[in-house]
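User: For a benchmark we're assembling, each entry needs the component sequences followed by a predicted structure for the full assembly. Here are entry 17's components. Please fill in the structure.
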Amino acid sequence: MTPSPAGDDGSESPGVDPEGLVASAVDRLAMITTLTALDELQTDLLGKRSALARAHQGLVALDPGERPEAGRRLNEARRQIESHLAVARRALELDERSTRLEADRLDLTELIGPALRGRLHVVQRTRDELEDVFVGMGFRVAEGPEAETDWYNFEALNMPPAHPARGMWDTLYLEVGEPETVMLRTHTSPVQVRLMESQGPPIYAVMPGKCYRRDTPDARHIPTFHQIEGLVVDRGISFADLAGTIETFTTAYFGADIHSRLRPSYFPFTEPSAEYEITCTICKGSGCRTCSQTGWIELGGCGMVDPAVFAAVGLDAEEWTGFAFGFGIDRCAQMRHEIPDMRVFFDNDVRVLRQI
Ligand code: PHE
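Assistant: Structure for entry 17:
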């Protein structure tokens, strides 16, 4: 090939040797160690200002007879450079990936140690511990469904349709049957009704399980939470039995320095009704931010079974008396482990969960 006039920038002849271009590309590629450098080299080798591109532009200056062969050699050189670049790119990508993987490496042998092997979630453990305490006190454990009908969740609990007390529970309804007839249970109290229907007194039972409310999550509330319900139905049960049971449970579960108190309250299915509060575990009753300086934390509600509930399940309220209580398992876990914000239970951050 005869040398041709210089290109526009006057720096290089378009008559370069295409095979030489390939050889020099291969040499330069051998020096490349990062994808960024590879991108730069690719522009250098194949871009508009590359020797190859200028050689292409220079073809017009050649004898018409020489053009096809010169063009073919340039195309072949481009094809080869492209394929060398692709091979190098693939190798670098693999390299960078393994470097990244190496940096993100987790030592799994550590996880196989006792700290995390088959560990139960703190809420599940709390539920098991609560069951154990109540079983030790002579209670049996029962369960009910999470999807409930209006009858069990409200009506049999002395809340007829449109009863204002239904507003105490922000309900998530399911699209099953007639509107607002089937819902995710807002508390475990419907299991009281199921138990009284399915077995006669005497009843000494606790009923743990998941409940749902249309609540905005905050430090002490989560829309999907857990409760444990208690129900005692027998002859001659009094409010003193309720208070004694609650106090016995409280010291058994939280320790001898934590006590319970009952404050007058209202629930449609108990009469009289009370809030169940325990000594704040964080300040041991002296007052702190978590308990709003009161020294007490509310765990749930309780009271004597309302005669209207006995009537709904066909029990004679003259013969039978009983008490019921229901409180949050998550709240219990929070108090027991002195956790300021309940949401950490469900963020599933292993660094937090392994500590509790
Ligand atoms: N079910 C009530 C609630 O979720 C608590 C409760 C249970 C109150 C049993 C009285 C008796 O708020």
